[in-house]
Amino acid sequence: MVDVPRQRPRRIKRLRPVGDGELRLHHRVVHGYRRAYRMAGQGPVLVLIHGIGDSSATWAELIPDLARTHTVIAPDLLGHGASDKPRADYSVAAYANGVRDLLSTLDIEQATLVGHSLGGGVAMQFAYQFPERTERLILVSAGGVGREVNPVLRAVSLPGAHLMLSALRLPGMGVQARLFAHLMRLLDTDLGQDAPELLTLVDALPDATSRSAFIRTLRAVVDWRGQVVTMLDRCYLTEGMPTMLIWGDRDSVVPVRHAYGAHEAMPGSRLEIFEGAGHFPFHTDPARFLSLVEEFTSTTGPADWSRENWSGLLRAGRPGSAAGQPNTAQNRAVERDMREASERSAT
């Protein structure tokens, strides 16, 4: 009989219960506009940034677990959810400014940012604009990597989008849209994986003001050719910043190949692929998502930002250019992607 060494019992972290009252929407007026957000828990700060047409409600089932060990802040971006929807600047840079200003009103100086889809682009832009306030990045099915994006979003960026979205509110159209979504799921298409969430986004545009804000946001990042902003040209600046990429391998909105491109461009990043998941992997497998976030934030230290290090990275520039390198097919492909990216720079 072989003696098996006794394993040391795992140390159980004390979890603080989260009350239902903490999960309700709060409001702050910033620059004259009312901004909605959810805030719960205590501990290191996690900021959850939703995608286009969505709201903080997309994180609702995850917040109670995350808030047991973190202070969780989930804003409704301007033009979304219960926040005001003015005729305003809905670029990723403006959204990054808005997140900073909301955090400042809450007396929060630093945070780990978790961004989904458009929110991933906002999180990356926040880290670029305010590196001294960014501890870690968790990018979930993030926009702003490659040009490809779902053709429906490209179509909505065209003139006449208001009429297209308004038509979806006509009697009977909701039933037809749900039948189409059900068919896509029965056929086991990638679009079918995301159909329920995408239909929820349509339901979140009940009036002309909401639809106008959605279209303004979309046109800031997408045109008829695809995504018009990128983070690839500045990904090297994440060196020394703990970064995790999470993607579904059946993402019908932002293809999974973007995950591999971003992972290659971000020094020291970690990549987690959810098999069988679409554009919302944190809905498909919330237990795995929660486990990854908890493990990542507890085993990595916050970015140690300094002005000298930042200046050094900028002076050195993006590594891996073809200059001085063998003219391989891979290098030519990288340079082609970078040239395309430079045409779509968010700056």
From TrEMBL:
Domain AB hydrolase-1, residue spans: 44-286
Matches recorded under Pfam families: Abhydrolase_1
Domain of life of the organism encoding this protein: Bacteria
Amino acid composition bias (Basic and acidic residues), ranges on this chain: 333-347
UniProt keyword annotations, A-Z: Hydrolase
GO molecular function, one term: hydrolase activity
InterPro entries named among the record's database cross-references: AB_hydrolase_1, AB_hydrolase_fold, AB_hydrolase_sf
Keyword presence, Hydrolase: yes
SUPFAM superfamilies: alpha/beta-Hydrolases
Region of interest: Disordered: 315-347
Protein name (Swiss-Prot/TrEMBL): Alpha/beta fold hydrolase
Provenance organism: Streptomyces xiangluensis
